[in-house]
Design brief:
By secondary structure, this protein is of the alpha/beta class.
């Protein structure tokens, strides 16, 4: 059913000067309900959409303005909207745990991605992060994504095609143990169990000074990755955990939601550098202070051990003084 129209022919409550974008056949749109349900739908002529509120003919949606209220055959209202990047990411068919939008948004920011950037991702998983990376680098950039598992690879391929991001992605069904097929890329993201095993491959593919990131779920994985990055010439190293808390949008009773998106993983960032003389000089001040403290503790322990050994031998032994002439 069509949205009510004003006397001017524009949708009700839409100012005349505002541009109106209408839904088109072949477009992916979002339908939301008053009870919070969200549906991604690819519009096709002659097709029908079914949900708990009834059915809608796609032909009745095609040509309707995005942002309009439409109605099922039972008279229930739904909002016709353009899907956001978050909607595309969260509604992929899942073969693996997806990266949450809060983490993906920060990754795009820290990887310095923009139109024209070249970025490598491993592994692809369900393709949720791949969608966000492609969204950032399109239309002139490229995402190169690697996934070793055949079934997961095919699921990600279908998800990317559905989201309309496949033209900006080059997919490889391959292990990264032998390295990447690209070199000189601007950014590289590892979402694998033991990322420290592939840092040499990362350095071969990522340009010096480029942007590296990895997501791992546990602190021992973070420690292993940090040790590997220090040993292979990375600088500007940073570890981040993002916590997201929503608030109830009630103006006169603003309260935080009872549920929040807490720990979803640790994000580790770094930059491969060229400093053959002393790459350790670029470690963080916290790391340098810790190393200095450990070195001092080692010297104290060595001195205490030496003194204990002297005590066991009867105390400090001084050389015999020469007799007067």
């Amino acid at each position: 059913m069509a949205q009510p129209m004003s006397e001017t022919g524009n949708p009700a409550h839409t100012p005349d000067h505002q541009p109106v974008i209408t839904a088109q056949a072949g477009q992916l749109i979002l339908l939301t309900t008053q009870d919070g349900k969200r549906y991604l739908v690819r519009l096709q002529e002659g097709a029908r959409f079914h949900c708990h509120l009834g059915t809608l003919n796609h032909d009745d949606l095609i040509g309707q303005p995005l942002g309009a209220t439409v109605y099922s055959q039972l008279g229930h209202p739904l909002l016709l909207l353009e899907p956001s990047l978050s909607d595309l990411m969260k509604r992929v068919k899942r073969a693996t745990q997806i990266i949450y939008p809060k983490d993906a948004a920060y990754l795009v920011h820290r990887l310095n991605l923009r139109a024209g950037s070249r970025v490598i991702e491993a592994g692809t998983g369900s393709g949720s992060l791949t969608i966000a990376l492609a969204w950032a680098v399109a239309p002139t950039g490229r995402v190169y994504t690697y996934e070793a598992r055949p079934e997961t690879f095919l699921t990600a391929q279908r998800n990317l095609e559905r989201a309309g991001m496949l033209p900006y992605v080059e997919m490889h069904q391959a292990s990264i143990a032998e390295g990447f097929r690209q070199s000189g890329v601007d950014a590289l993201m590892l979402d694998v169990r033991e990322p420290w095993r592939f840092l040499e491959q990362v350095r071969e593919a990522l340009r010096p000074g480029g942007f590296f990131a990895s997501l791992v779920p546990t602190t021992n994985q973070v420690s292993g990755l940090l040790e590997g990055m220090e040993a292979t010439g990375f600088a500007d190293i940073d570890v981040v955990e993002l916590l997201l808390r929503r608030y109830k949008p009630v103006p006169d009773r603003l309260r935080p939601d009872e549920n929040m998106v807490g720990h979803t993983g640790f994000l580790v960032f770094g930059r491969p550098i060229l400093d053959p003389q002393d790459p350790q000089r670029w470690l963080s001040q916290e790391r340098k202070r810790y190393q200095a403290r450990k070195a001092t503790q080692a010297r104290i322990a060595e001195e205490e051990a030496r003194r204990a050994a002297e005590q066991e031998q009867g105390g400090r032994k001084y050389p015999r003084m020469p007799l007067p002439g």
